[in-house]
UniProtKB/TrEMBL annotation:
Residues 163-243 form a coiled coil. The keyword DNA-binding does not apply. This is Fibrinogen C-terminal domain-containing protein. It comes from Phoxinus phoxinus. Pfam families: ANG-1, Fibrinogen_C.
Length: 489
């Protein structure tokens, strides 16, 4: 049993520090072993006091043990000696173990401290590097925050400046609006005053208008009377002109009789014999020129230019243009009576044309010349013109010619219009817009009485002398001739 306790004590001493304490009150020795945080206490057996027999023993036992008492004492003494030796040995072993364990524990502590120091240094280094990286990141973020803050502050400053400017502008606008309101109020008052004055003026104008209307009516009646007087005077002048023409013809006949080789174009026979140039041609006068003619069924004479060369001759010219010396933007009356120079540019007169074409069926020929020297013609086998009551309505049929495959004269049955008498089918008043007098219909594809434009200025002119199906609507021609001849020539 002692050996077992000794081994256990040696095992415990091998794993921890052993401390021996003093004996307790019972006389037993105690041993403490420190292993880490744990402390273990052991009590070793001590020899009992065996000096005499116990009073509790019976006499029978005392007698039986008395013989062996001396041997037992000897054995106990030996055991006590052995225990003391063992105790000394244990003390030496304890001292040895303590010395060896102290060195090992110191070395282990040093190793642990070194390992812990290295680990702590590594951890500290890692923490320092992480701290430096975090510090760098924090510095970068702080710089970004400072930059962003600076930019925001700058923007706020700019916005503040802009806001101040806008506030100033708004204040200026408010001031201007107030001024405008004041001006508006002032103008409203002036407008009210002006409206009152205008109403008064309108009333006065209405009264003056009534007076003017009455005055115009009086003047109209006076003008009609004057026109009648002018007509009577014109008829008297016509009679005087007729007498003068008769005298001139007589003188010319005498000159022709006396002079040999005189110009047959200037020779005028008895005008009562010739109603048109076809009759003059058939009488043997085949020289183009101005002849005196007589309106059928009347004694009223007129002069006309006779073309005796084109397409067999015998043509009575009713319109001629070639130099722009005559203004064709004339009134209704002038187009009715005729105007211009018979030997130059002229319009024969709608009344004469109507009388000639009402007597018998006529052919109309139109010759055209452009600024490039090209010529073309349009021919109508049936042509007539109504009287003034029918607005000199035109009638055409059987077209042929080289000035376009289609006729440019517009719709047959169109009325004649001038700048002061509008008979077209357009609300725009074609004569005023395109100039001249013509059978415009709805402003139509032709107008040979338009404005005369010289070369270089004759393109892109919609109010010029146009013939659409030959040169288009914007080309103004150089020369035109309109002439008529009986269909049975």
């Amino acid at each position: 049993m002692l050996n077992t306790g000794t081994l256990f004590l040696i095992y415990c001493l091998s794993i921890g520090e052993v401390f021996m304490t003093n004996s307790d009150a019972t006389g037993k020795k105690s041993y403490q072993i420190q292993n880490g945080p744990c402390t273990y206490t052991f009590l070793l057996p001590e020899p009992q006091n065996c000096g005499g027999p116990s009073s509790t023993f019976t006499n029978q036992v005392q007698r039986d043990d008395l013989v062996d008492y001396d041997s037992s004492v000897q054995r106990l003494e030996q055991l006590e000696t052995t225990m003391e030796n063992n105790t000394q040995w244990l003390q030496k072993l304890e001292n040895y173990i303590q010395e060896n364990l102290k060195q090992d524990m110191a070395q282990m502590q040093n190793n642990a401290v070194q390992n812990h120091t290295v680990t702590m240094i590594k951890i500290g280094t890692s923490l320092l590097s992480q701290t430096a990286e975090q510090t760098r990141k924090i510095t970068t973020v702080e710089a970004q925050v400072i930059n962003q803050t600076t930019r925001l502050e700058r923007q706020l400053l700019e916005n503040s400046i802009s806001t101040s400017k806008l506030e100033n502008e708004i204040l200026q606008q408010i001031n201007e609006i107030q001024k405008l309101n004041e001006k508006n109020s002032f103008l409203e008052k002036r407008v009210e005053d002006m409206e009152g004055k205008r109403n008064t003026e309108l009333e006065n104008l209405e009264a003056e208008k009534e007076q003017l209307k009455k005055l115009v009516e009086k003047q109209t009646s006076i003008i009609k009377e004057m026109e009648q007087q002018l007509l009577r005077t014109s008829s008297d002048n016509s009679a005087m002109k007729q007498q003068q023409q008769e005298l001139t013809n007589t003188v010319n006949n005498l000159i022709h009789t006396i002079s040999v080789g005189s110009n047959p174009a200037m020779m005028q026979d008895d005008p009562d014999q010739y109603n048109d140039c076809a009759a003059v041609f058939k009488s043997g006068n085949k020289e183009s020129g101005v002849y005196s003619l007589t309106i059928p069924d009347t004694k009223q004479q007129f002069k006309a230019y006779c073309d005796m060369e084109i397409d067999g001759g015998g043509w009575t010219v009713i319109q001629k243009r070639f130099n722009g010396l005559v203004d064709f933007h004339q009134t209704w009356k002038n187009y009715t009576m005729g105007f211009g120079d018979i030997s130059g540019e002229h319009w024969l007169g709608n009344e004469i044309i109507s009388m000639l074409t009402q007597e018998k069926q006529h052919v109309l020929r139109i010759d055209l010349t452009d600024w490039e020297g090209n010529t073309a013609f349009s021919k109508y086998e049936q042509f007539s013109l109504d009287g003034e009551k029918q607005n000199y309505r035109i009638h055409l049929n059987s077209y042929s010619g080289t000035a376009g495959k289609t006729s440019s004269m517009g719709q047959p049955g169109s009325d004649f219009s001038t700048k002061d008498v509008d008979n077209d089918k357009c609300i725009c008043k074609c004569s005023q817009m395109l100039s001249g007098g013509w059978w415009f219909d709805a402003c139509g594809p032709s107008n040979l009485n338009g404005v005369y434009y010289q070369q270089g200025q004759n393109t892109n002119r919609f109010n010029g002398i146009k013939w659409y199906y030959w040169k288009g609507s914007a080309y103004s021609l150089k020369a035109t001739t309109m002439m008529i001849r009986p269909s049975n020539f």
